[in-house]
Design a protein that fits this description.
CATH class of the largest domain: Alpha Beta
Structural class: alpha+beta
Distance between the termini: 58 Å
Strand content: 25-35%
Number of domains: 3
Low-confidence stretches: 1-10, 17-24
Helix content: 25-40%
Number of helices: 13
CATH architecture of the largest domain: 2-Layer Sandwich
Largest sheet: 5 strands, antiparallel
Radius of gyration: 20 Å
Strand order of the largest sheet: 5-6-11-7-8
Shape: globular
Length: 309
C-alpha cells in the first residue's frame, strides 16, 4: 500500500504539530494530489479527513471529534475544486469555499438563497477556508448551506474504491443527512461534489438566519424559501428549515399548502403545516417555544415577500 500511495502522488509526512491536543493519536499525515490516491488511503483506513478544518478543529478540542491514526489533508486534490455548469446541472466541487460561492456570478444570479447563506456564514477569515463539502459532512442541524441546498434539490456525489476500482454514487441531500452530525457516507467514501439543477430564470429564493449575531453565531433557526411566483401564487414551492429538527429538513406538507395557490389565501394553512413539521428543542441558543414563534413570524414575512415578486 505504501508503494502504491507514493506512486499516486500522496505525500506521507510526519504528523504536524497539533495544538488541539491530539498529537499522540495521529501517526501519519497524508496530502494526496489526486482523487485516486485519496480513495486508496480511505480504502486502507481508518482516516480522518481534513479540508478547511473550521468544524474539525473546534470539535477535537471539546472531544466531539476523535482523530484516527491517519490524518489526510484533501486541499491539494484538483478533482474536488471548482464551480461550473453543464447541460443544466451546476457542480460545486467539495472544496469550494464560502468565499468562492459568494464571489461566483452564477451563484449570486440564480441561487440567491445559497448566496445569502454564505454572506452570513461566520467571518471573512472562516469563509476563506470553510468548504461546502465540509459544511455538508458536518451535518449540523443548523448548517448554514444545508437549508438553501435543500431548497435547490441538491445531490451529493460520493466516490470510493471499495473493490479497487473507482465507483461513484449520487445521493439526494435530504437522504444523505441522517441525524445530528451523521450522514450516510461510508468510511471509505469521499464527498467529491454537490450537484444542483440550474433553476429557471423566474425562480426566486431567499434565506433567513436568526441568531444573537447571525453572521458569527450558530443559528437559532434558519429558513429557505423558493418558488416560481405568478400572479400572487407560488408554483414549484420549496420550503426548508434548519435548527428545528434532528437534521435540516424540507417541509413537503408546507409546500403542498402553497402549491399553485394565492399566497394571501394560504399563509395561515402553511404556517400551521410548518408548525406540525418541525420538532425544535430547547438549548442554550433558544427555547423550543421561541423557535416555533420565530418560524411562524419569519416564514410569514418571507412568503409575503416572495408572493409579491
Amino acid at each position: 500500500m505504501n508503494e502504491h500511495l507514493r506512486s499516486t502522488a500522496v505525500e506521507r509526512e510526519p504528523a504536524p504539530p497539533t495544538p488541539w491536543g491530539a498529537a499522540d493519536e495521529i501517526a501519519t499525515y497524508l496530502a494526496p494530489r489526486s482523487l485516486d490516491a485519496a480513495l486508496e488511503a480511505l480504502r486502507a483506513g481508518p482516516v480522518t479527513i481534513l479540508a478547511g478544518g473550521t468544524d474539525l478543529m473546534p470539535q477535537s478540542k471539546t472531544g466531539r471529534a476523535r482523530f484516527h491514526p491517519t490524518l489526510m489533508n484533501i486541499r491539494r486534490i484538483p478533482e474536488l475544486q471548482g464551480i461550473g455548469e453543464a447541460s443544466g446541472m451546476v457542480r460545486f466541487g467539495a472544496l469550494a469555499t464560502m468565499t468562492d460561492l459568494l464571489e461566483n456570478a452564477l451563484v449570486r444570479s440564480r441561487f440567491n438563497a445559497l448566496w445569502q447563506a454564505c454572506d452570513c456564514f461566520a467571518s471573512d477569515q472562516l469563509r476563506n477556508v470553510a468548504t461546502i463539502g465540509g459544511n455538508i459532512c458536518n451535518a449540523s442541524p443548523a448548517g448554514d448551506t444545508l437549508v438553501p441546498l435543500l431548497v435547490f434539490d441538491a445531490h451529493v456525489v460520493l466516490a470510493s474504491k471499495a473493490d479497487g476500482t473507482l465507483a461513484t454514487r449520487t445521493v439526494p441531500l435530504r437522504d444523505f443527512l441522517v441525524g445530528p452530525g451523521r450522514t450516510s457516507r461510508r468510511p471509505d467514501e469521499l464527498l467529491t461534489a454537490v450537484e444542483v439543477p440550474l433553476p429557471n430564470e423566474r425562480f426566486v429564493s431567499a434565506f433567513y438566519k436568526a441568531g444573537a449575531r447571525p453572521a458569527l453565531d450558530i443559528s437559532a433557526i434558519s429558513i429557505g424559501v423558493g418558488a416560481n411566483p405568478a400572479a400572487g401564487a407560488l408554483n414549484d414551492a420549496r420550503i426548508a428549515f434548519g435548527a428545528v429538527a434532528p437534521t435540516a429538513i424540507r417541509a413537503p406538507r408546507t409546500e403542498a399548502t402553497l402549491e399553485g395557490r394565492l399566497v394571501a389565501e394560504t399563509i395561515e394553512p402553511a404556517l400551521k403545516a410548518a408548525d406540525d413539521e418541525i420538532s425544535p428543542i430547547s438549548d442554550v441558543r433558544a427555547s423550543a417555544w421561541y423557535r416555533r414563534e420565530l418560524i411562524r413570524n419569519v416564514l410569514r414575512g418571507m412568503l409575503e415577500n416572495v408572493g409579491q415578486c
